[in-house]
Amino acid sequence: MTKPDRQTTGNAALDRLLGGGLEPRTITQLYGGPASGKSTLCMIASVSCLRAGGSVIFIDSEGFSIERFRQIAGNDTAAIADRLFLFEPVDFDQQGGMITESDKIFRQHKPGLVVLDSATALYRTDLEKGRDAMQQLTRQMLQILGYTKRYDLPALVTNQVYMDTTRNTFAGLGGTSLEHISKAIVRLDRLETPGWRRATLVKHRSRPEGASFDFEIVQDGIRAKE
Ligand SMILES: Nc1ncnc2c1ncn2[C@@H]1O[C@H](COP(=O)(O)OP(=O)(O)OP(=O)(O)O)[C@@H](O)[C@H]1O
Ligand SMILES: [Mg+2]
Q: Mean pLDDT across the stretch 95-108?
Protein backbone atom coordinates (compact mmCIF):
# COMPACT_ATOMS: atom_id res chain seq x y z
CA MET A 1 0.00 0.00 0.00
CA THR A 2 1.17 3.50 -0.79
CA LYS A 3 1.82 5.59 2.28
CA PRO A 4 -0.69 8.46 2.11
CA ASP A 5 1.17 10.98 4.23
CA ARG A 6 3.35 13.53 2.53
CA GLN A 7 6.74 14.55 3.80
CA THR A 8 7.28 18.13 4.87
CA THR A 9 9.43 20.41 2.72
CA GLY A 10 10.45 22.19 5.91
CA ASN A 11 8.36 25.21 4.95
CA ALA A 12 4.64 25.54 5.70
CA ALA A 13 3.82 27.70 2.66
CA LEU A 14 5.54 25.30 0.28
CA ASP A 15 3.83 22.34 1.96
CA ARG A 16 0.46 24.03 1.41
CA LEU A 17 1.28 24.76 -2.22
CA LEU A 18 2.09 21.08 -2.74
CA GLY A 19 -1.07 19.88 -1.01
CA GLY A 20 0.68 18.84 2.20
CA GLY A 21 4.34 18.42 1.23
CA LEU A 22 6.50 16.15 -0.91
CA GLU A 23 4.69 13.07 -2.14
CA PRO A 24 6.54 9.81 -1.45
CA ARG A 25 7.12 7.55 -4.45
CA THR A 26 7.23 10.51 -6.82
CA ILE A 27 9.65 13.15 -8.08
CA THR A 28 8.96 16.82 -7.30
CA GLN A 29 10.76 19.31 -9.51
CA LEU A 30 11.76 22.90 -8.75
CA TYR A 31 12.86 24.98 -11.67
CA GLY A 32 13.97 28.56 -12.04
CA GLY A 33 16.71 30.95 -13.04
CA PRO A 34 19.94 31.70 -11.19
CA ALA A 35 19.53 32.61 -7.51
CA SER A 36 15.79 31.90 -7.60
CA GLY A 37 16.06 29.75 -4.47
CA LYS A 38 16.29 26.20 -5.82
CA SER A 39 19.25 25.08 -3.72
CA THR A 40 17.93 26.83 -0.63
CA LEU A 41 14.65 24.92 -0.85
CA CYS A 42 16.55 21.64 -1.35
CA MET A 43 18.57 22.31 1.76
CA ILE A 44 15.53 23.23 3.83
CA ALA A 45 13.82 19.98 2.83
CA SER A 46 17.00 18.01 3.55
CA VAL A 47 17.55 19.56 6.97
CA SER A 48 13.94 18.92 7.87
CA CYS A 49 14.22 15.26 6.83
CA LEU A 50 17.52 14.83 8.70
CA ARG A 51 16.01 16.37 11.84
CA ALA A 52 13.20 13.82 11.58
CA GLY A 53 15.77 11.02 11.59
CA GLY A 54 15.94 10.11 7.91
CA SER A 55 19.01 9.88 5.73
CA VAL A 56 19.39 12.17 2.76
CA ILE A 57 21.22 11.52 -0.48
CA PHE A 58 22.15 14.88 -1.92
CA ILE A 59 23.65 14.87 -5.40
CA ASP A 60 24.97 18.33 -6.10
CA SER A 61 26.39 19.06 -9.53
CA GLU A 62 27.17 22.68 -8.78
CA GLY A 63 29.22 22.52 -5.59
CA PHE A 64 27.47 22.09 -2.26
CA SER A 65 27.74 25.10 0.07
CA ILE A 66 28.55 23.78 3.51
CA GLU A 67 28.29 27.32 4.81
CA ARG A 68 24.70 27.59 3.57
CA PHE A 69 23.88 24.18 5.07
CA ARG A 70 25.21 25.39 8.41
CA GLN A 71 23.09 28.53 8.26
CA ILE A 72 19.96 26.48 7.65
CA ALA A 73 20.70 23.62 10.06
CA GLY A 74 21.89 25.98 12.81
CA ASN A 75 22.73 24.27 16.09
CA ASP A 76 21.65 20.92 14.68
CA THR A 77 24.43 20.87 12.06
CA ALA A 78 26.79 18.53 13.90
CA ALA A 79 24.04 16.18 15.03
CA ILE A 80 22.50 15.67 11.59
CA ALA A 81 25.42 16.04 9.17
CA ASP A 82 26.49 12.39 9.40
CA ARG A 83 23.25 11.26 7.77
CA LEU A 84 23.69 13.63 4.85
CA PHE A 85 25.31 11.66 2.03
CA LEU A 86 26.75 14.16 -0.38
CA PHE A 87 27.82 13.41 -3.94
CA GLU A 88 29.43 16.00 -6.18
CA PRO A 89 29.67 14.73 -9.76
CA VAL A 90 31.87 16.64 -12.18
CA ASP A 91 30.27 15.40 -15.37
CA PHE A 92 27.04 13.85 -16.50
CA ASP A 93 28.40 10.29 -16.69
CA GLN A 94 29.65 10.57 -13.13
CA GLN A 95 26.25 11.91 -12.06
CA GLY A 96 24.68 8.73 -13.44
CA GLY A 97 27.26 6.57 -11.65
CA MET A 98 26.63 8.31 -8.35
CA ILE A 99 22.88 7.83 -8.68
CA THR A 100 23.53 4.10 -9.16
CA GLU A 101 25.97 4.01 -6.20
CA SER A 102 23.56 5.75 -3.86
CA ASP A 103 21.37 2.66 -3.66
CA LYS A 104 23.96 1.09 -1.35
CA ILE A 105 23.49 3.90 1.14
CA PHE A 106 19.76 3.45 1.40
CA ARG A 107 20.26 -0.25 2.00
CA GLN A 108 22.28 0.59 5.08
CA HIS A 109 20.74 3.82 6.38
CA LYS A 110 17.14 4.80 7.02
CA PRO A 111 15.97 6.27 3.69
CA GLY A 112 14.47 9.75 3.93
CA LEU A 113 14.94 11.85 0.80
CA VAL A 114 16.83 11.99 -2.49
CA VAL A 115 17.87 15.39 -3.82
CA LEU A 116 19.39 16.06 -7.23
CA ASP A 117 20.51 19.68 -7.52
CA SER A 118 20.62 20.32 -10.39
CA ALA A 119 19.50 17.52 -12.69
CA THR A 120 20.46 19.48 -15.77
CA ALA A 121 23.56 21.58 -15.01
CA LEU A 122 25.94 18.87 -16.27
CA TYR A 123 23.44 17.64 -18.83
CA ARG A 124 23.60 21.05 -20.44
CA THR A 125 27.36 20.82 -20.80
CA ASP A 126 26.97 17.45 -22.50
CA LEU A 127 24.26 18.73 -24.75
CA GLU A 128 26.56 21.48 -25.91
CA LYS A 129 29.10 18.81 -26.77
CA GLY A 130 26.46 17.35 -29.06
CA ARG A 131 26.03 14.06 -27.21
CA ASP A 132 22.76 12.34 -26.78
CA ALA A 133 22.27 13.37 -23.21
CA MET A 134 18.49 13.26 -23.22
CA GLN A 135 18.31 9.47 -23.01
CA GLN A 136 20.87 9.47 -20.25
CA LEU A 137 18.87 12.06 -18.30
CA THR A 138 15.74 9.96 -18.65
CA ARG A 139 17.65 6.92 -17.42
CA GLN A 140 18.93 8.81 -14.38
CA MET A 141 15.44 10.07 -13.55
CA LEU A 142 13.94 6.60 -13.90
CA GLN A 143 16.57 5.26 -11.54
CA ILE A 144 15.73 7.92 -8.96
CA LEU A 145 12.04 7.19 -9.42
CA GLY A 146 12.84 3.53 -8.79
CA TYR A 147 14.43 4.44 -5.43
CA THR A 148 11.42 6.50 -4.40
CA LYS A 149 9.24 3.45 -4.94
CA ARG A 150 11.62 0.87 -3.50
CA TYR A 151 12.24 2.90 -0.34
CA ASP A 152 8.90 4.72 -0.16
CA LEU A 153 10.33 8.21 -0.13
CA PRO A 154 10.08 11.44 -2.12
CA ALA A 155 12.70 12.85 -4.48
CA LEU A 156 13.37 16.50 -5.09
CA VAL A 157 15.14 17.57 -8.27
CA THR A 158 15.98 21.02 -9.52
CA ASN A 159 16.15 22.15 -13.08
CA GLN A 160 17.62 25.14 -14.80
CA VAL A 161 15.87 27.25 -17.38
CA TYR A 162 16.63 28.33 -20.91
CA MET A 163 15.02 30.91 -23.15
CA ASP A 164 12.47 29.22 -25.39
CA THR A 165 12.62 31.58 -28.34
CA THR A 166 9.60 30.13 -30.11
CA ARG A 167 7.37 30.79 -27.12
CA ASN A 168 9.45 33.77 -25.96
CA THR A 169 9.49 32.52 -22.40
CA PHE A 170 11.77 30.71 -20.00
CA ALA A 171 11.25 26.97 -19.89
CA GLY A 172 12.80 24.12 -17.91
CA LEU A 173 15.63 22.14 -19.49
CA GLY A 174 15.39 18.42 -20.01
CA GLY A 175 12.42 18.48 -22.35
CA THR A 176 9.22 16.57 -21.97
CA SER A 177 10.75 13.51 -20.35
CA LEU A 178 11.78 15.46 -17.26
CA GLU A 179 8.42 17.18 -17.29
CA HIS A 180 6.49 13.93 -17.44
CA ILE A 181 8.49 12.11 -14.85
CA SER A 182 8.04 14.93 -12.30
CA LYS A 183 4.60 14.54 -10.74
CA ALA A 184 4.71 17.98 -9.11
CA ILE A 185 6.52 20.98 -10.60
CA VAL A 186 7.10 24.36 -8.94
CA ARG A 187 8.55 27.33 -10.79
CA LEU A 188 10.62 29.89 -8.90
CA ASP A 189 10.88 33.46 -10.14
CA ARG A 190 12.74 36.48 -8.86
CA LEU A 191 10.32 39.39 -8.48
CA GLU A 192 11.04 43.00 -9.30
CA THR A 193 11.08 43.95 -5.62
CA PRO A 194 14.67 43.18 -4.56
CA GLY A 195 15.00 40.06 -2.47
CA TRP A 196 11.55 38.67 -3.22
CA ARG A 197 10.81 35.42 -5.03
CA ARG A 198 7.60 33.71 -6.11
CA ALA A 199 6.90 29.97 -6.06
CA THR A 200 4.19 28.97 -8.55
CA LEU A 201 2.63 25.54 -8.95
CA VAL A 202 3.06 24.53 -12.59
CA LYS A 203 1.97 20.90 -12.40
CA HIS A 204 0.28 18.80 -9.73
CA ARG A 205 -1.89 15.72 -9.69
CA SER A 206 -4.54 17.00 -7.30
CA ARG A 207 -4.13 20.78 -7.01
CA PRO A 208 -4.94 23.59 -9.46
CA GLU A 209 -2.04 25.03 -11.40
CA GLY A 210 -1.16 28.66 -10.92
CA ALA A 211 -1.36 28.80 -7.11
CA SER A 212 1.61 30.68 -5.68
CA PHE A 213 3.22 32.30 -2.67
CA ASP A 214 5.92 34.93 -2.32
CA PHE A 215 8.99 34.54 -0.15
CA GLU A 216 12.29 36.08 0.86
CA ILE A 217 15.53 34.15 1.26
CA VAL A 218 16.83 34.61 4.79
CA GLN A 219 19.71 33.33 6.94
CA ASP A 220 18.04 30.11 8.05
CA GLY A 221 16.07 29.42 4.87
CA ILE A 222 13.10 31.26 3.46
CA ARG A 223 10.34 33.37 4.94
CA ALA A 224 6.97 33.40 3.17
CA LYS A 225 5.00 36.60 2.92
CA GLU A 226 2.10 36.64 5.42
N1 LIG B 1 22.14 33.95 4.54
C2 LIG B 1 21.43 34.48 3.54
N3 LIG B 1 20.54 35.47 3.76
C4 LIG B 1 19.83 36.01 2.75
N5 LIG B 1 19.92 35.63 1.47
C6 LIG B 1 20.79 34.64 1.19
C7 LIG B 1 21.57 34.01 2.20
N8 LIG B 1 22.34 33.07 1.62
C9 LIG B 1 22.05 33.10 0.31
N10 LIG B 1 21.12 34.05 0.04
C11 LIG B 1 20.58 34.41 -1.28
O12 LIG B 1 20.07 33.27 -1.89
C13 LIG B 1 20.16 33.41 -3.30
C14 LIG B 1 20.70 32.11 -3.87
O15 LIG B 1 19.75 31.12 -3.62
P16 LIG B 1 19.94 29.66 -4.16
O17 LIG B 1 21.36 29.26 -4.09
O18 LIG B 1 18.94 28.84 -3.47
O19 LIG B 1 19.51 29.87 -5.68
P20 LIG B 1 19.53 28.81 -6.87
O21 LIG B 1 18.21 28.92 -7.52
O22 LIG B 1 19.96 27.50 -6.37
O23 LIG B 1 20.63 29.45 -7.83
P24 LIG B 1 21.59 28.72 -8.92
O25 LIG B 1 20.77 28.56 -10.16
O26 LIG B 1 22.68 29.70 -9.11
O27 LIG B 1 22.03 27.42 -8.36
C28 LIG B 1 21.08 34.57 -3.59
O29 LIG B 1 20.29 35.66 -4.04
C30 LIG B 1 21.66 34.88 -2.22
O31 LIG B 1 21.90 36.25 -2.06
MG1 LIG C 1 21.55 26.25 -6.87
A: 96
